[in-house]
Structures
1.
Amino acid sequence: MTIYRAPVEATLFIIDDVLALSRHANLPGFGEAAPDVVAAVLGEAGRFAEEVLAPLNRIGDVEGCTLHADGRVTTPAGFRDAYRRFAAGGWIGLAGDPDYGGQGLPFVLAAALNEFVTSANMAFGMYPGLAQGAVTAIARHGSQRQKRLYLPKLLSGEWAGTMNLTEPQAGTDLGLIRTRAGPNADGSYAISGSKIFISGGEHDLADNIVHLVLARIDGSPAGTKGISMFVVPKVIPADDGSLGEANRVSCGALEQKMGIHGSATCLMNYDGATGWLVGERDRGVSAMFTMMNEARLGVGIQGLALSELAYQNAAAYARERRQGRALARAGESGGAADPILVHPDIRRTLAAIKGFNIAARALALATALDADIAEKSSDDATRAAAADRLALMTPVVKGVLTDRGFDNVVAAQQVFGGHGYIAETGVEQFVRDARVAMMYEGANGIQALDLVGRKLPKDGGRAVTAFFKEVSDFVDEHRDEALAPFIGPLSQGLDDLRAATMWFMANALARPANGAAGATDYMHLFGLVALGFMWARIALAAERRIAEGDPRSERLTGDFLVGRAFMERTMPETGLRLARITAGAETLMALPEAAL
Amino acid sequence: MTIYRAPVEATLFIIDDVLALSRHANLPGFGEAAPDVVAAVLGEAGRFAEEVLAPLNRIGDVEGCTLHADGRVTTPAGFRDAYRRFAAGGWIGLAGDPDYGGQGLPFVLAAALNEFVTSANMAFGMYPGLAQGAVTAIARHGSQRQKRLYLPKLLSGEWAGTMNLTEPQAGTDLGLIRTRAGPNADGSYAISGSKIFISGGEHDLADNIVHLVLARIDGSPAGTKGISMFVVPKVIPADDGSLGEANRVSCGALEQKMGIHGSATCLMNYDGATGWLVGERDRGVSAMFTMMNEARLGVGIQGLALSELAYQNAAAYARERRQGRALARAGESGGAADPILVHPDIRRTLAAIKGFNIAARALALATALDADIAEKSSDDATRAAAADRLALMTPVVKGVLTDRGFDNVVAAQQVFGGHGYIAETGVEQFVRDARVAMMYEGANGIQALDLVGRKLPKDGGRAVTAFFKEVSDFVDEHRDEALAPFIGPLSQGLDDLRAATMWFMANALARPANGAAGATDYMHLFGLVALGFMWARIALAAERRIAEGDPRSERLTGDFLVGRAFMERTMPETGLRLARITAGAETLMALPEAAL
């Protein structure tokens, strides 16, 4: 039996105090997001996650999804009803465009909601999460007709959405896509081919499913420059949104997976299905990438969400489970055993996870806020700076939060000892669920290459230079305060990150393998500095509240200590990352293939 | 579809060249273990693992074990036949005492066999592995009658064995055991209580199961000093070993676990079962600990075995899977995609895993050889030194090989991208299987505390001092040779380890929490130095063979480069471990309970 309490108060502190959402009240939709509204929305979201979604998490794992002989896919017991309530609550359209029925609230709130939903039930959260991707793609690249037809249905949850990229021979390398699109007389296309690993490709939650499909139009060039994006609805709608006949698309098989069993992962067959071009011909990969940033941020949040869920369960277990005695009682004979929370090794584990969770939440929400600003600010420079930060931080959030999040779930499982291995305890499901986030939406090695190969050099390094300056200014400004335990390790981390960046400039331009071999370590070094920077900002905000005698002072003081432990024990990893980066690629590339 | 090839050649190189088994020909049983015999035995073991056990690995996972209404437990299809062949081949008694029907070969060969068996089928390997524990317990602590009655049957595999320690409220803390033993008139005891997590507690592989059970005799003191060890056979044998009536012991339930589904994990009920005291009354915990060392070494090898298995599959996939292009071809247009093995990030991953596997195998085998020497040498000083090394290295092998082994399995899974998450690919089973080794036989946090709290200070630090000297002498002796890429990082690692040890002496005696908070990092720091030391010795042996123009030179040269990558990229972690250790416990212990 597992527990989950949505971290509403902690999230509000980040939004109100660390990110100071109220400073952005001039952005569209932010005026409506006054602190009391935000608190009410997130409180309600937390309750929904705790009361409706969390109780279905284990059922979803045990039952999984079922493909029936007639091609229907049914979701686990309770999912349909929960989805109906989730849609009816307006949660899917929380940050959606009000012109199409969305609530128009800041995207940062949708990101917070996403954490709660995913902690409570990651498999469930995949379904509305994918609709989000379809919304973004159509909103950015679709025609007026497509927007009018699809967006209201997607935002209300009446229809669900998917992204169809992967084929058996084409994963990371989308240029290898073989799905074809042949023009029909009416301007639509006939789509033929097979797609794999399609989350939510078929299910029983919504009346229709809107597939966004990458395919090559007959005659288009080979490689990524000949791929176009199509919208292919499961049921073809009339102009008024009423449902017509079934399209020629079907689920051929469900994958048996390590985890997220409640999420239907489908092999999809397109047998001359009718699709409509979204955006420009042959520009599908670039169109898909504009929505990818948002999806990757969502996956990063999955890493955090599972880390939080596993943490809560491990901490509760450590309070209850009595084994051995505290060191202070080592001399005593007799008496009951102590809760294992007294043991330093357990405290080390829990503090490390919690220290990550708090900073990772702040980083994810800060990045979501950048997405808001990049889209909605009326000031060009503000918009550009936010877009830079968003592009730079997206692979970091995706790669680092899922890698470290998974490690944290494993560490939390370890707190349970052998009991953690038993299905009934529940935590082993969290490990199996969390694992996928490192692999899909671009495996983390690809995130690292995106950061080092694309985001670093972009615009002459403008984004990374601005980030270094932001951290460096903060360090300079707060060097002499009570923040020293935060500033010291952050400053060291920034030095390591700058040294690594310089090393790439000196060694990776002439020999790109040096960049590629160090990319994963660089991504993690970058992530540590970003998390350390968040901790410094959180500590500053906490200090101020404590000094004011805020009623939350006791909790904030505890968090402050958790942050100190993070700076003492996690941040020194920046030195290791730098050492690995500067080891370079020589030995690795000298290895004959037969040696591996 | 997964693959497995037993690393026979690599193992022989460690045994013959690095450990120089022939130097120990004077030990009993070692005379028979001439290089050609060892090669034949391990070759045969490898074939058995590849051809008989590996094909049952996935079946075991999918089918699992079944508890029937009549209390019988059946193992997955094929396990019975494989077990019969394994027993008939004499593999269970490979290193067993010839006086009781064992083959009397060195234990180091049994350790190598254990790796192959576990890679091929970890769940299967649990059954004979547990018999090994029962053999050791009875051989060391049993009466003559018990030895005559049980050892031949256990060594032949006719009977299987178990260890019964854990109860719901008593895991690490054996003093909390509630199972009771009441004296019977005939000198036997009536055992009553429930034990959980009993691997192989009930199954259909052998005619009888010999349970070794910890229980408290009526009137014995509370805590660990009132626990005795009993032998409780499932079917009570007559003096001649013929089977009599069923004992009052039964399997009440099978645990549903994350992995090793083919291994029956039982809740065992003892309802006044007849048992016989093994060893002295109230000394059961200490008796159990003498056999624990061997079991822990076996679990450490499980970490290596799964890392090797996952590596082989990831490397094969990286050769076949074509996505993207090598950096050298970045400018080309057209042409086929390259195998992902060309990408530096994939090479980094594979080299790190292989670099661990080679050194971990050497460390496990060196420790197994120490077990041989500690038991069989006729020279007191040689025996004592080997016993010191064995005791010191056992928690390191268990904790470090299972922690890093698991991380490697996860990293290998990552090479598959999204395909790694699909059950059919097979690698996700390896992750689920490997996970348990960090938790059972003493969770790894307990291994770390054993190392720091018990093994370090033992006999005035004699064992650790000798180890430091051994490494330091090697470093001094080989400083100027072609071994520099190995000696440099090893020397730095040793410095870090010595600094950490000094820090404990200065800070953990007065404040034990400083030792406990740093224990896990210290265990890993110790493990890195031990692995680095192994690499230096392997590199030395490889250099010599290559200089001789050995026909294996091409492979050895490749391994040498893999070792260099390990020294460059893995060894720098010693600095991080030292930094965490010297962070101390202050912040962790200052955390109010409510903050966690």
Note: The mean pLDDT of chain B is 96.
2.
Amino acid sequence: MSDSRVSQSPGRSPRRALPLNRVTVRDAFWSPRLTQVGDSILPYQWDALNDRVPGAAPSHAFENLRIAAGDGTGAFHGYVFQDSDVAKWLEAVAYSLNQRPNPELEALADRVIDVVARAQQPDGYLDSYFTIKEPAKRWSNVRDWHEMYCAGHMIEAGVAYYEATGKDRLLDVARRLADHIDSRFGPQPGQRRGYPGHEEIELALVKLHRVTGEDRYLRLSKYFIDERGSEPQFFDLEAQERGDPAAGRPYDKSYSQSHLPVRQQTVAVGHAVRAMYLYSGMADIAAATGDSTLFRACRGLWENLTHRQMYITGGIGSAEQGEAFTFDYDLPNDTAYTETCAAIGLVFWAHRMLRLDVDRDYADTMERALYNGVLSGISLDGRSYFYVNPLEVWPEACGRRGDHRHVEPTRKPWFGCACCPPNLARLIASFGQYIYAEDDETLYVHLYASSAGRFEIGGQSVTLSQATDYPWDGAVAIDVAVERPASFGIAIRVPGWCADASATVNGIRLALERVNRNGYVRIAREWRSGDRIELEFPMTIQRVYADPRVREDVGRVALQRGPIVYCLEEVDNGPNLPSISLPRDATLTLEGCDASLGNAPCIVGTARRVDESGYDSVSMYRPKPPIFDDVSLRAVPYFAWGNRGAGEMLVWIREG
Amino acid sequence: MSDSRVSQSPGRSPRRALPLNRVTVRDAFWSPRLTQVGDSILPYQWDALNDRVPGAAPSHAFENLRIAAGDGTGAFHGYVFQDSDVAKWLEAVAYSLNQRPNPELEALADRVIDVVARAQQPDGYLDSYFTIKEPAKRWSNVRDWHEMYCAGHMIEAGVAYYEATGKDRLLDVARRLADHIDSRFGPQPGQRRGYPGHEEIELALVKLHRVTGEDRYLRLSKYFIDERGSEPQFFDLEAQERGDPAAGRPYDKSYSQSHLPVRQQTVAVGHAVRAMYLYSGMADIAAATGDSTLFRACRGLWENLTHRQMYITGGIGSAEQGEAFTFDYDLPNDTAYTETCAAIGLVFWAHRMLRLDVDRDYADTMERALYNGVLSGISLDGRSYFYVNPLEVWPEACGRRGDHRHVEPTRKPWFGCACCPPNLARLIASFGQYIYAEDDETLYVHLYASSAGRFEIGGQSVTLSQATDYPWDGAVAIDVAVERPASFGIAIRVPGWCADASATVNGIRLALERVNRNGYVRIAREWRSGDRIELEFPMTIQRVYADPRVREDVGRVALQRGPIVYCLEEVDNGPNLPSISLPRDATLTLEGCDASLGNAPCIVGTARRVDESGYDSVSMYRPKPPIFDDVSLRAVPYFAWGNRGAGEMLVWIREG
């Protein structure tokens, strides 16, 4: 097979993610979820946004926009960022329509967009809170009041809806909103040298630039990123200007990543979602402008985050207070905050890093977050959600304020602060865009799912058709279809979890020992239709150990198979899960699929458990060593936990 | 030795604790501490109460009383219960004077008492907060405003100062204050059917009854206990009466143990200090009245507390929120609240239970709390204090709000809420009263410390002189001195931690295998001067295991020797203490006394530690099992931790 070679991945010219409208997902794992988003989740969430879900926290989000549009009367209700829930819902609708027509949903979205458009003010301003409640305070507290955050989400929605339907009404709203902001913020005389307290608009403006071709949106995004953290500090000036009585008191600028200019930041700090959105915007600007200083800053932050501050589930942000990062290796399992939105943000950032730098570290992390800490946020039926995704849950302790206030033992139908549910909907609906990428010489396969990607390379259209039972089986077949034979590369990620991958092209084995250090195999040859790449990533049940500086996990083991992290649940293993230990030499086997867990295979084996009998009548503390009994153990995918009633859950199992 | 026999301990006629003025402590462990209280701690605390300690949280406590007495001007500062700090300080002075004359300290206390007496109002009311700040609100919120709590402490001080010095000025203040309260609260028409939100006065009134002989104080105490939790709920009525806007909202009555009548309570709930003071009062009333229903309630609460909700250190109340108990077996080590005052309260309660029921369970627990969770609250130099006594500390995490806000890595010179420091002073100064008890037939030895107790039995004075190096050595010699030969019993506690005790009387071995199930050996014979009891409680280094329902401690071991619980400190063992594991077969030996730890012996041995090298450049999570290195381990007494700078601390060590 002289025309195949395994080579280094190409340099740092940015790759283009294959957009959603060029990817078709037909996958046993993902397609039901995509269908569920359109058929069930988005209608359900629409009901929640309109306060029609019994027992759910009230939203009022759409009603606020109706009032601002003059269609309703009454008071604003909810958080200052309530509009963003509607924006993310519209964006999710767009991705869903992009993948699968749904005239009813589209008609509903059109009606929503009509209201949004009429809620926009003549000068382009759009934020129902300030329009209804405090019009005089517009733009007076960009640090705390989320106007730019809401704008960013509305811009993303406008771009996505335009790309899905060709309809530009919401895109026009987005443009006028961006123009309004562009006129007010920037370095020119009469403009405010500011930037948002909650980042988001940066990445949104890059999308707006992409579909409109208008450079000023890219410039404004870059301005927000370049200006952030510079002296004199905008948030201080702004607080003084508005006569904030707290202006003299210290504000922890690291909370909003504005403590330093972004290029000087080396440690992931502050509110985890804000951080992910900022770093995503930084990566976007690095890709759009070729700014290597921004790439280096992103790389440093990435290494800090993924080597020191990330849970095995891809959950990030361990502290409830500030929904924030704390410090290196501080990853408690039972009080972990690990907001669903933060794991989603990590997917966004990882995906953008892959554009800058082909390294499986990004794709592995994207996959880790996606299949674990993101999907754990939503129930299998799509109708209940975790805001917080700890790695150990004891339902009785969840009521304990002071340290467990934020931990819920069961998913909720909605939240007062409902950022996560529509964020999940838009991520799942847009799953297809994370699979493939391309540049002028290479097609990239980042993720594995049965799907087809339609690429443009060398002046022709090329299709890769992927067939796999991932994430439950590591066999992947990729069929190549070209208009005419052509030479280019296909770069395939060898997952970091897989130690003994093998691959063939048309049945001929590739020398995978030459996989480059970045974890991608680039197969360069003249491709013809009918060529087939077959990959085998054997999925063994792996015992995974944490960096021992994560003190919570020392002496413990997690079970993983492929990209899926497993956990123990009380419903399978009885109460007091921490009393279970797994001997190092215990045999673990795969058990057939469980319908109540979305047909996921489970892991079973024999473990040991401390005998709890005979303690009631004696001292709690005694010199007699505990007695261990053999017990059967059953582990289920972490993302599927909590779908069978309330109970304990545990990821990190004692070993020994 | 036909005249010696080991018999059941006597029945439930209450024993009398041997009061402080009949006990002389001359002990290598305790005497330096008693001296330190008089010479250093009480003067230091006086400075703190007068805001003369640089860097300490302000108190203003004495100044408030001066203002109320007309000696000063200005505003009240501090908590509504600020007076109680002065009251406890006076009580501690009294105990110290009782043990050891100190004319200077006595003169100071007399001056303080003069101010307190003049701060008392003509009607007997005494509380500087309401006198200075809100006189119209006296007695309008007994639930929250601590007037009875402050009164209780002032009554205790008055009794103690009278017993130590014979001076009755503060006792008169206490009587007038108690009379004032007695006139206002009770079942008679015109009285309020109330009881305090923060219990304390119940046990104080029993003391006042003891020294004055006035039955009405005992009746009032019993009334508070009997009335507590009855319907209609006083705290609800009171809230309605004062027009509290929160009156309609639920108040968690379990916080103040008023959710049920006390005789129906079976689980220790709510604010841990309040609970201990209530249960102490219940035991006092049970002893004073022979009320077996109260004893049974105490016993049920005791079993719940000590078998399900107590740390190995005797620390209790695991939750920061409400400084409270949570639920059975919920004993996190790193976020433990375990207030010093709660462990002190447990000593009070255990001591009172011993009056009702001779069972070493009480004395063992009293000893456990005293030598571990109480003494940990004070530095070896007596000048800094822990309010919170966790069993695992990671200084970096102490700043983490949301779950570690309350945990301090180092003791503080004082607190805004400074209940613990003077509580420590009064407990240490009164240590002698916990050692011995007597009834009409038996002398009891509950604790071991070199000391002499002067008993009255059979119409003569009997002295037991105890010599020991406890808690570091388990050999105890007790010499008996009688005026004339007499038959009575001497009941000696065999500590629960000791599995192979031996004893002789005049060199003749006792059959200790016949120790009764309550853990006391009663030696009945005709005692003559010169008789000597020798006890040997071999102190081995013990590995102690927790009830496995305490999930935080499963797979872990604590080290204990005699009554002393040990811990690891970073200064001896390096950082990341949780990465250390102790093989079950590791040899542990005692190391000579360490002057920097108050001459405590340490425990040393060889343990294992996860090798932390080689993780920085790889994924945080990987299938490679960790490598263990042999390391030397050094454990120090828990009470002495944190005396050598800030650093990590850990009680429960992974085993294996």
Note: Residues 30-49 of chain A form the longest helix (20 residues).
3.
Amino acid sequence: MPLLKSWVESANAADCPFPLNNLPYGVFSTPDLSARCGVAIGDMILDLKRAEADGVIAQSGAAVFAGPAWNAFMALGRDRWAGLRNRLTALLSDGSDGQTALSALLVPMADATMHLPIQVAEYTDFYAGRNHAFNVGTMFRGAENALPPNWLHIPIGYNGRASSVVVSGTDIRRPWGQLKGPNDDRPRFAPSQRFDIELEMGAIVGQPSSGPITVQEADDNIFGYVLLNDWSARDIQAWEYQPLGPFQSKATATSISPWIVTAAALEPFRCDTPEREVPLLAHLQDAGPALFDIDLRVTLAPEGKAATTIAETNYNVMYYSAAQQLAHHTTSGCPMRVGDLLGSGTISGPDKTARGSLLELSWGGKEPLTLDSGDTRSFIEDGDTLTLAGAARGDGFTIGFGTCVGTVRPALDDPYTRG
Amino acid sequence: MPLLKSWVESANAADCPFPLNNLPYGVFSTPDLSARCGVAIGDMILDLKRAEADGVIAQSGAAVFAGPAWNAFMALGRDRWAGLRNRLTALLSDGSDGQTALSALLVPMADATMHLPIQVAEYTDFYAGRNHAFNVGTMFRGAENALPPNWLHIPIGYNGRASSVVVSGTDIRRPWGQLKGPNDDRPRFAPSQRFDIELEMGAIVGQPSSGPITVQEADDNIFGYVLLNDWSARDIQAWEYQPLGPFQSKATATSISPWIVTAAALEPFRCDTPEREVPLLAHLQDAGPALFDIDLRVTLAPEGKAATTIAETNYNVMYYSAAQQLAHHTTSGCPMRVGDLLGSGTISGPDKTARGSLLELSWGGKEPLTLDSGDTRSFIEDGDTLTLAGAARGDGFTIGFGTCVGTVRPALDDPYTRG
């Protein structure tokens, strides 16, 4: 598929992340416009609330784009997802007679504030990267016991905390927590000293289910994808995670990028999961290629200094797809809802420079990174800005995710002082 | 405090679970009345939607009792919680001049269908019973490693799945899942054979918080308590829980009783947590007695047969209070929301007959229970009805929780057949 040309000129540049082929969905506001649904095209945002009110986008029934979340639209189902994408593609195409009506509904992206694109129903985080699981397992349990016995049979996951999901750009406060190092006599309560990122993709569930669903049905129920940074306090995690898993170490914040890149836009970039080391049981077997070829990059910028790229990898290295994760999520009859968010797990490639966490990049702090500024890093320091970026690269066009950014602010002096 | 007498005569019986001292909050409907908020008094429910509309209960601003959840009222804060309780106590007291106006707003409990009393924002399950943790740890890891090293320092918890919370009376479908016994070569996908209950109390968070809060603040933010049965598939759990904790084993369903017994009603029953085996860090220390003296009972009735009491215990045996759990939940800055539900963890007393799960009662299936009917049970069989009951017993009155009931239905023949 070539670049689709739009009458919005900025969308036609070869390096534009938001060409007509993409059409990612977000929620934006400006000083004059309340938070509402919009679609990115070039360096502009089409205001879908006004498009709907004006009848440019025909909708039956209640307004679904007026509110600050895509949930109401997602709930309408796949036919309507396809219908909107087709309509927007037609209206924004070069030569469309929609240009006059729509031009007045475009807002410069530079003037907009982005918000969470969905109301997150519940948030689940997986552990589906083979290299990440092996690296972390090696550090925690030794190379021989690195991969848990169940890992090759089920996409291991745990429930996270939906209330902690924030949009890119939100500052992240270094957490306090209970810590106990291996040589400490007893735990203490202190700010985390091993605060970290996890480079992930987030899959957004757009249709509900009330019992077990197949991998194909799961794939069909995924509305789109975002970049996701699952901020992790490694020292809190090491002390708390046995026997019931990570809890406060993962509850400070999870950042997501503001633009939902739809599954439809990613169709040309589908690719297979890797060959299975042991066969999966029937209910988890692939129903077709369900990973995506998406280049990913992480940069770290110390306060007031330039950013250094610290990792480059690709979503296609994962062992389990989001569709397999969602199918597994439903096996016990667990009801899934519109707006559920599934984190892929940390995406680490096989190379040392392709690791999606500082824990792996600095090998638990034993091999600190040297940044372009000359600073070294084992874990995040106060004032550091961490940025994830992602893009699927087609022939003459790019399906960009934009960025997922967070700056880490110092821990509170006294966490029990209000205000 | 003695029994408070009401003009609703049934509320004055010595064994009535819902005297004027209690006033628990629920959501009910009848064939004629949509789901709405109500308060139990004797064998009647006072319709708070109509009471509010009629001006009997003065409310400023928007109607908060008309919808099918207590969240809107909880969000108004503690002063309003106290105000409503005071007003209801006055109106329903023997000799009140509210009798005429209110009599028309009473609905026989027998005619009502009960619903979930809250919209569950997120659900967290803890592991705060010393005996339960020791029993389960002994079975899984041996007596010497029974209690994890962190257990005496933090109330261990994990995030559960809010979408799986159902109201008492909802049938529970035996789940399928991936299973692998210690002697199996490889896992298989099959219905759970070790399906179990967990006897717990649920604490309902009634006020939001956005950073770490103290144990006292946490106690203040708890609106009330319910009975909670955290249905658990032990065979799924054993295979999946390392390293990130329980996931699908706990996602089939969690049942709660329909009546929220308020923290205010439980005030006379406060009691201390047990003496600490090691001192807690300052931020988790008790701020006063925050457990409650609540008798708890579990019965099991095979299909078509009488129920047998299989466990009797008390909430006062827990090591951590809900206030300590909620305070711990916020340490990393995790935002808490109105409607968050916290499971206490399984409540097992020191005696063999005081254990709150079949896993413990049958010691992993090695010591099956014999029921009054002559049937034996290691785990739940299809058609079994499990009932939790709870009550705080005062001098001449009872603060009853009612019951939390669920009947287990056979697993689906083929979980991937729709409809």
Note: Chain B touches chain A through 65 residues (CB under 8 Å).
